[in-house]
Amino acid sequence: MEPIGRKRWAIAEGYIPRESHGPAPELISHETACILNASDVPAHVSITIYFSERECAGPYRIVIPPRRTKHIRFNDLSDPEVIPRGTDYSSVIESDVAVVVQHSRLDSRQDANALLSTIAFPADP
Amino acid sequence: MEPIGRKRWAIAEGYIPRESHGPAPELISHETACILNASDVPAHVSITIYFSERECAGPYRIVIPPRRTKHIRFNDLSDPEVIPRGTDYSSVIESDVAVVVQHSRLDSRQDANALLSTIAFPADP
Amino acid sequence: MEPIGRKRWAIAEGYIPRESHGPAPELISHETACILNASDVPAHVSITIYFSERECAGPYRIVIPPRRTKHIRFNDLSDPEVIPRGTDYSSVIESDVAVVVQHSRLDSRQDANALLSTIAFPADP
Amino acid sequence: MEPIGRKRWAIAEGYIPRESHGPAPELISHETACILNASDVPAHVSITIYFSERECAGPYRIVIPPRRTKHIRFNDLSDPEVIPRGTDYSSVIESDVAVVVQHSRLDSRQDANALLSTIAFPADP
Fold this sequence. Notes:
The structure is a homotetramer.
Chain A: E1 6-11, E2 30-37, E3 43-51, E4 57-64, E5 68-73, E6 89-107, E7 114-119, E8 121-122
Antiparallel strand pairs in A: 1-6, 1-8, 2-5, 2-6, 3-4, 3-6, 6-7
């Protein structure tokens, strides 16, 4: 399939709530970058995390096989370091082939969960 | 009316929750692609679903009449195959005329429902 | 201020829930198009509603004064006709000066309210 | 890093709920503009607020250091004036270097919180 997307994306919002209600892992509060690689070659993706009070974390490296999607939980990123909970951050996502990125959060701090989602910002080609 | 939209869109987020609270069909957990065909000719739409661990499903074919909208529940797609619940996916939507695509989810796994929505990613013209 | 936005926008998602919990008017389930006119002249806006099973409704005409925003509840539109509840629709918003459009819904059908919001689709200039 | 984003953004939706449930400050109803400055120089940002019934408020001035993000709560803006609660508004965000802006709200008026988020509208370069 003809490549779809961009090679550089940004998500300005980022925050992993400290608390959760409901069964794990499904209803644990989490923050996700959904990345679609609709191309016919693997996408080598690197994620850099920006904070308000310290230097960046990362890059976190992920490979997305051809014609596959990965819903990456920021909660699970651990190499080179875990992303702190209850802390504001942003992310920049870079790939060697065009991908599509969408940002979502499930927040289950209170009795019923809340959701947000938005297309990430596609950097100019 | 002058055509509005694009012929190719992507939704990187996709997930149909397994559980629901509240009366069916309105409050069943569901995932929707809202597609507006504001043009004066029918739009022949095909949807391809991408997964993290297997090859794509589809294409699912839908016709949207002139000057009509269709809010397509991914839950209801069954030909060529049903989309599994509780599974990460992404979708690419292609049309022979320009359309506008928005993605929504109603998640009623817990007592009160949660909603998300975003414009889909419009591929470059 | 230099004009900001576009003259033509589309919102593919549209649905006014029939039920609500909580005090009116604040927590009545509602669907909103927030329209910002940052320019120094009035914006003459017309909204057309698209359905899945019938011809369009509208145009609904609204004037937004210079340097003002209007958060238009679709629930309140009544001329030329009320928008039916519990019915799928989409909307196209046209203006004679550039404006910015964002779509939101508050859904209070269950005990706790749910929210969604997205930037509308900006038609190509 | 190569600059990412735009120098001018708009958020058409804006509303700070008057009430909240849950512990402060985390679960106070709030409205946020998340601004990422991925560049290597400070970003001088100014925010102007538009209302439906009065002239604009602002500019509110914020500096975002190089390679930092700021999640700015509209609730906290106080110079030149506090933003009224329970009132519709929109915002325009201008910066001297490219930044990325995302809009979020946490609404805890009812027992469980609700969330919305969207990429802001990036003005044409």
